[in-house]
Structure formats: structure tokens, C-alpha cells
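quick q for whoever's on today - can somebody do inverse folding on this one?? i tried earlier but teh output was garbage lol. C-alpha cells:
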């Protein structure tokens, strides 16, 4: 029998302390997991130089003479400020225009979603994936149209069936076909949706369609890899959990805004026990909403000065 060699934990602690100190951190007490931030001359130089350069570039860009020339030469590209400012607002940033349209016209859906999800989890936790799928489907139907909702369900069905075949390569083939179908199908979705929903509703649906390709690829590949790791020898066709995968694919907070969350991370968050609804949790939720509102106002204000 081999004799066990004692491990010198002090050496490991010293190594971690030295590594943390070299990166500008202090280890609090004897706990190597508690790392405290410490300012160093290098960090001060880095942040002052970085923030100063960004502030200088934004200031020069916001006060350039060409900006006034563009406003006078092409006034159709600008709208009056919704906040009563003298500075006109750029209306040519279609990415932000469509995002603002979705947020201003559907903000009630976004605020109601976590409240109803929390109530569902309190009453019947097993119905949370069903709630996600149904609520998001209704959101897509009333915002973009029933045709878009059926299209998203068809996307999920394609990846759902592909995942049951346990072929990772086939999942990538299906994703490629769905992405490239617009290049060889004669149907023009823009000409169909524009008279019914308008341009502001078409582009968010177009973006969500491509987000769904990544989400469908994620849940199908992650499911196949999870089944492979089990290695039970069972070659029968096993289907992914329908409501959980559909709720993941149509999860309202990311269905249009993105970015796509990995399916394994989504399942881990859903399976974790939810914290109790305390005043602290409510305050944190309100703070996050206010932070999102501040980001929205920041983007709106930047559209007045950066063209």
C-alpha cells in the first residue's frame, strides 16, 4: 500500500494569497474565497485613461460641426424630442427604434410576467414551464400576430423532433436549413407582414426568429449530450421535456431582447429553489427595474446627440 503524502495547505494558501495580491486584491482574513478589491497605481492609470479616452471621443462626436449640417440638410432623418429638449432625436437607428417600440408598447407584459410566474411557482411549481410557454405564446400572438406564433411553434417542433433522434450533426443541419430557407423559398415574409403589422413589428419578429434558431440548437444539443452522458445502453427514442423546452425557447425576457441563454443554465436556474418573497427580494426586483429604466433613458438621450 502506498503511504499518503500529507498536503501542506499553508503552501496553497500562500500561493493563492500571492496570486490575489499580484492582481490587486486582498484576501480577507484566513478565508481564501473572500477577495477584497484593492486599488493599485496600475488600476488607477487604466481606468482614468480608459474613461478619459471614451469621454473625449463621445464629447468630440457630440459637438462636431457635421452634426448641425446633417440636421439642416436632411431634417427628415430627425424627430422632435419626446422629452421637450431643443436637440432633435435621430430616427434612423432602426435597431433602437424597433427595440423602443417593443418596450414601450409591451411593457405591461414584461412587468406582469415575473409576478404571475412567482404566483405559479408558489401554487404549483411544476406548472412554471407551462406558464412560460403559454404566456410567451400569447405575447407573441398579440404583439406580432398569430402567424408568427405558429412559426415559432414550428421552429420548436423541428428541433424537438431532431433532438429525439440523438444526432448532434443533424441538429446543426436543421439549424442551417432554417436559417438559409429565406434564400431559396419564394415566400417573402416582409411583403406579407408589412401591410398587417407594420415595419416596427416585423423587424423584432425577424430578430426573435433568428434568436430561436440558437435557442433550439442549444436545447437539442444539450439534451443529446445529457442523454449520452447517462450511458444507460437504452437505444430507444427518448423525447425531450416538451413544456420545459418550449418555455425555454419562448422565454419572454429573452424572446426578442436576447441574448440566448444556454438550455443547461436555464434548467439549472429553474430547478433551483426560489428565494422567499421578502422585502429585500422585492427591493432588489424594483432596483433592477429602475436600472433597466435608466438604461432605456440613457439610450434615448444618446439618440439626441450621437447621429
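ok took a stab at it. sequence:
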Amino acid at each position: 500500500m502506498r503511504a499518503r503524502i500529507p498536503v501542506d495547505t499553508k503552501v496553497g494558501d500562500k500561493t493563492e494569497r500571492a496570486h490575489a495580491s499580484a492582481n490587486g486584491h486582498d484576501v480577507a482574513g484566513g478565508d481564501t474565497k473572500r477577495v477584497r478589491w484593492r486599488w493599485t497605481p496600475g488600476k488607477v492609470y487604466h481606468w482614468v485613461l480608459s474613461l478619459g479616452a471614451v469621454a473625449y471621443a463621445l464629447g468630440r462626436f457630440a459637438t462636431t460641426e457635421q452634426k448641425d449640417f446633417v440636421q439642416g440638410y436632411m431634417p427628415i432623418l430627425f424627430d422632435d424630442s419626446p422629452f421637450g429638449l431643443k436637440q432633435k432625436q435621430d430616427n434612423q437607428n432602426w435597431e433602437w427604434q424597433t427595440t423602443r417600440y417593443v418596450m414601450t408598447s409591451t411593457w405591461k407584459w414584461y412587468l406582469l410576467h415575473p409576478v404571475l410566474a412567482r404566483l405559479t411557482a408558489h401554487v404549483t411549481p411544476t406548472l412554471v414551464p407551462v406558464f412560460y410557454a403559454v404566456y410567451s405564446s400569447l405575447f407573441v400572438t398579440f404583439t406580432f400576430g398569430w402567424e408568427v406564433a405558429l412559426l415559432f411553434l414550428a421552429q420548436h417542433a423541428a428541433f424537438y423532433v431532431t433532438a429525439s433522434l440523438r444526432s448532434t450533426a443533424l441538429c446543426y443541419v436543421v439549424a442551417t436549413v432554417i436559417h438559409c430557407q429565406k434564400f431559396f423559398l419564394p415566400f417573402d415574409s416582409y411583403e406579407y407582414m408589412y401591410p398587417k403589422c407594420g415595419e416596427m413589428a416585423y423587424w423584432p419578429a425577424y430578430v426573435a426568429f433568428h434568436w430561436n434558431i440558437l435557442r433550439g440548437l442549444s436545447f437539442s444539443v444539450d439534451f443529446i449530450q445529457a442523454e449520452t452522458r447517462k450511458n444507460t445502453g437504452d437505444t430507444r427514442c427518448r423525447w425531450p421535456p416538451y413544456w420545459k423546452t418550449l418555455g425555454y425557447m419562448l422565454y419572454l425576457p429573452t424572446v426578442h431582447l436576447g441574448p440566448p441563454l444556454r438550455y443547461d443554465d436555464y434548467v439549472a436556474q429553474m430547478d433551483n429553489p426560489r428565494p422567499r418573497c421578502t422585502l429585500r427580494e422585492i427591493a432588489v426586483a424594483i432596483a433592477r427595474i429602475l436600472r433597466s429604466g435608466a438604461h432605456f433613458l440613457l439610450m434615448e438621450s444618446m439618440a439626441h446627440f450621437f447621429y
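fwiw The radius of gyration is 26 Å. also The CA atoms of residues 66 and 72 lie 10 Å apart. so keep that in mind when u check it
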